[in-house]
Amino acid sequence: MVNLVQALGIVALLYCTSVAGDKVFRFDYTSSRNIDGWWKLHNIPVTWNMARLRCLAEGAILLSPLNKNYVKTMKMIMATSNGSIQRGIYSGVHATYSKGVYSSIEGVPLSRIPVSWAPGEPDNYDNNESCLLFFPNGTMADVNCNEVRPYICYKKRNYDVVRSDCGTTDSQYHLESRTGSCYKFHTIGQTWHQAYMTCAAEGGYLAIINNDIEAQALKELAAKYPETREIAKFTNFTDPVAVGYYDWNKDRTWFTIHGESLSEAGYRIWSENQPDNAKIENMGQHCGGMLRSSLLDDVWCEDLTYQFICEKSPESLIPEA
Ligand SMILES: [Ca+2]
Ligand SMILES: [Ca+2]
Asked: How far is the CA of 153 from the centre of ligand 1 (A)?
């Protein structure tokens, strides 16, 4: 016989287990036993590759209908949403490595996935379709990967995953005691706009320098990583890293990505002769950069890639109490 105290203990234990399991990933993901993990619906349509990158930056992958439980879950998520979702969402099943050879992001081959095709599909229309779309009724079709569609990101449950001091499972974020923020230095360059997306998906933002102390902290952080020397080919300066300010109106007035002027933000020390709006093929510099000296330098927004620094509050991904 289980007495009342024991019963309450069991209930409390089950509750704690489920809460810990449910909340360990991030606030914007929903736990699901059916798919043994967490999911997040992105209802703003993007290309398949952008969807893939966004999930990756969130620490997840594109959800695929790997078995009947996944199919059921995807249908359930779509049934409670409207708009463009009703016209189909991207799955993680793709043939972008080799035309016609489909597998899910995690490598499950198409032959192992319980696909029921929509009428007339798959047709590889114009020999230009390598991504699989999932419809609300559970059928699928191959489509051009450049079409824009909503999608679902998925994180498989992993009990080893722990949130750090920085409130993330991403171990590359480190808490800086002098500012109370966490920072991650991205060594693989992206364009300023891509870098903005990556930081946002990680739960942060392109770093905003608010005072000399933060500038010093970022200078020390950047000093730990070698320069790529990519931009040095075009300028006399050491490689800038992308940070969070922007010439919004392209009229040389600079705002942080949180809408303040640089003076309001608290740091506006430009490198000598910067911002210079240097031109490559008529393309000026409207995006924010920081030299290794921590002095500011305007950089190109498109085409060229920069290493970049994301800043994150330790609370940003934690559910509100
Ligand atoms: Ca098709
Ligand atoms: Ca410049």
From this structure: 23
